[in-house]
Amino acid sequence: MLLEVVPAVMRTLVMHMRRMHAGSLSVGQFRCLVFLHHHSGSSLSELADHLGLGLPAVSRLIDGLLARGLVQRTSHPADRRRLVLALSGPGRAVLEAVRRAAQKQLAASLEALSVEERGAVMRAMDILRSLFGPRERAAWRGRRTRRESSCGR
After folding, report:
1. Domain extents for the chain?
2. Best CA proximity match to 42, nearest among 64, 72, 17, 18
3. What crossing angle do the helices spanning 2-20 and 27-38 adopt, rounded to 10°?
4. pLDDT tens for residues 33-69?
5. Are 87 and 37 in contact (CB under 8 A)?
6. Bridge partners (DSSP) listed for residue 114
């Protein structure tokens, strides 16, 4: 059931994001900003791995975000050949505005539920967060650390 519900929720959020922020951000750009918010200093390869896209596609996404001043690209402090990505101040502001709009839309959708149903949804989200949230982030950090050490970084 989770495999059916999560995509439906995401489609609804994406539809509202596009309507409310037409032309502001593509879904791919939004996902880039969210990733960089949580993983500042990541490389293009790490971002591509997370998004499940090839380097050329992610490079184009980042180029668009760089041109708009939403992302910064700098040299790694220990290895000047390696470039690292981070959100800029305007990037954080845009991400927060889009996130607030999405949360507002979700809240409006959930208002149709009874208090008990909303409580059940919140409990289910807490359970899913405990299963997938911290463990997934820790696993990602572990993959990143292993990749860097295996490349001599």
Report:
1. 2-112
2. 72
3. 110
4. 999 999 999 999 999 999 999 999 999 999 999 999 9
5. yes
6. none
CATH class of 2-112: mainly alpha
**Amino acid residing at 11:** R
DSSP letters along 137-152, please?
HHHHHHHHHHHHHHTT
Q: Phi and psi at residue 76, in whole multiples of 5°?
A: -65, 135
Q: Give tens-digit pLDDT for 79-131.
A: 778 889 999 999 999 888 888 888 888 888 889 999 999 999 999 989 988 98
DSSP 133: H
* Partner residues linked to 42 by β-bridges: 85
**Which residue in this structure is represented by tokens 């939004």?**
30
Location of structure tokens 């919140």:
122
Give Cβ neighbours of residue 2 (< 8 Å, ≥ 6 apart).
128
Residue 102: partners with Cβ closer than 8 Å, 6 or more residues away: 13, 16, 17
* Spatial distance between the Cα atoms of 38 and 58, rounded to a whole number of angstroms: 17
